[in-house]
Amino acid sequence: MALAIPLSYAGGLCFMVRPMFSIDDYANPTRFLELTRKLLPWLAAATMLTLGVGLIAVFFVVPPDYQQGDSVRIMYIHVPSAWLSIFAYVVMTSASLGVLVWRHPLADAAQKTAAALGATFTFICLVTGSLWGKPMWGTYWVWDARLTSMLVLFLLYLGLIAIRQTMDETPRGARIAAIMTLVGFVDIPIIKYSVEWWNTLHQPASVFRLGGPTIASSMLWPLLVMALGATLLFLTLHFMAIRNEILRRRVARLAMLSVRAQDETTDPGALEAAQ
Amino acid sequence: MNDYGLFIFLAYGVTAVTIFAMTARIVVDYRHLRAELAQLERTRSTDESRAS
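ok -> structure tokens follow
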């Protein structure tokens, strides 16, 4: 069950677990509400515990860097938020496949709600990177390939949020948003490889690289703990947001039924004439 | 930490405020939706009992 929820909530990833689990068993909105109601308190507790341990390590265990000094502590929120801003887009892309291939309502809710979270983490990444850049590079911003591609990602998130807000809750609206998400995915490899393809001020990868991490273990493990905490925070908020989206659709459906019932009781003849 | 104290404070402050605002919005939305759903279900059951 623990494996089924993270795999099924993105909708689009469901095909990977098809041989082991039935999509309808776990990607059903009612079942999702039931499962997440039980899971969310545990997930929230694990998030607080992991982030608590990570923050204690960042401020009391991690030594100052020999070049960056104490400003290296900003990296412990900048790097996880950068990873999560990309992770959120991967979740959205997987969910978009779920919308386009299976037309699943849960995949649509996952796609819609991940955009705001992705924008939030990208915003944090840009602001903290800027606050680290001023003392280290002497400037808050440069039009370097990595920074610019991250800014493009932030604008993509804002655009996708705007598309969802201007379109009504129809399958057509969901499909258009899904196609736009797939088109925007081209920015993800550009972000990842920008530091290799172009000569950038931003440093190349220092954790996920072929030769292994270049960071000292005393600084690496708190970074990984913070990254785990941030991922758990993302999952907690995403599950909560998907639950809200399911409830919002139920409220809209019930409100429509109630208006229809009132019309029928007040003037049944007019309704028949209109039909 | 004195040299970079302000930058560290601002970075963690902005992060905390942003995440708190996001979480608060989701929680407030949830409470609002639950209340609205309960109200609609009550109205619906009243209408159904009247009709029957």
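The radius of gyration of chain B is 22 Å.
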